[in-house]
Amino acid sequence: MRQVYLNGRYLPADEACVPVTDRGLLFGDSVYEVIPAYAGAPFRAAEHLDRLQRSLDAIRLPNPMSREAWLEMIGTLCDTCGAVDHSIYIQVTRGAYPGRAHRPPETLRPTVIAFTQPIPERDPRIPEQGIRAITLADIRWHRCDIKSTNLLANVLAQAQALESGADDAIFIRDGIAREGTASNLFIVLDGLLITPPNSDELLPGITRELVLELAREAGIAHAEASIREADLRRAGEIWLTSSTREIAPVVMLDGAPVGDGRPGPRWREMDRLYQAAKQRIRLAARNGDTR
Ligand code: PDD
Is 0.90 surpassed by the pTM of this model? Predict the structure, then answer.
């Protein structure tokens, strides 16, 4: 992270400071987005900005910037990234207010923070070895559709997964598998690709939407349906999807192999389609078409 956008200014990272009274810091009173950019071209920026708007509406915080201003700021940050793939992190807090009143005046000026981070290359072992996951009780609140920065339950679940020798955790609530700690969930069950329907219990992922779109285009049988814990355990394939991790194939669940314990054929097919979609963005960026 070299440069940080803070309230209209581009600053060196070590000069970008927010007051200790910022509501984002004291109350977690803020929402965020993570947008991938391939070869300097943001991917699905409009969809991410739509979701940001829904998060802001849900926490009753007026959007402090116009769509044009967001896109311009994203473009300016992308220009500093060169050809390396990056993610653009955006956070909007309710602003700084001296005091700890739960309900601050509505005249507060929101704080807007944004910066880029390189997206690490995918571990070359993943297509052969996949990743391991554990299941955990979902102790999060009931508005997981809001991309809120209150991520303590996610942080603790991720730590528990790593401590138990796994890479990630899948949240289970009321006997239903919901999503990963920072990803959406797909399974292949009896040949059908299934992901839970959007609801208050999970984040409406942009990658999730893209995977559904690719499945539709490729004629892959799919459904949006609740995934019972028992079905998760007998699934032939399990995937976790996100803007930065793309589609990760889970090969071990709670220490038991998923399918034959290797990334499955449906994952290979979908990963190929996903990589092709990414490549189209890279090529368009090289040709100067960054829409
Ligand atoms: N997280 N579910 C949760 C809880 C998430 O935090 C994320 C993404 C997703 C996938 O959403 P998308 O496909 O739009 O990235 C699902 C981002 C990457 C993060 O917190 O860094």
Answer: yes
Question: How far does residue 136's CA lie from ligand 1's centre (Å)?
Answer: 18
195 lines ligand 1 (CB under 6 A): no
Could you name the CATH architecture of 3-118?
2-Layer Sandwich (3.30)
Q: Which CATH class is domain 125-278?
A: alpha beta
- Beta-bridged to residue 148, according to DSSP, are 31
**91: Cβ below 6 Å to ligand 1?**
no
pLDDT in tens, 34-90: 999 998 999 999 999 999 999 999 999 999 999 999 999 999 999 988 888 999 999
Query: Distance, CA 105 to ligand 1 centroid (Å)?
Result: 31
Which of 203, 206, 245 to mutate to test ligand 1, by most ligand atoms within 8 A of the CB atom?
Answer: 203
Tell me the per-residue pLDDT of 157-173, one tens digit each, with 9 for 90 and over.
999 999 999 999 999 99
119 C-alpha vs ligand 1 centroid, how far in Å?
14
Task: Report the residue among 183, 213, 239, 270 best suited for mutation to probe ligand 1: largest number of ligand atoms under 8 A from its CB.
Answer: 183
From-to residues of CATH 3.20.10.10 in the chain: 125-278
Span(s) in the chain for CATH 3.30.470.10: 3-118
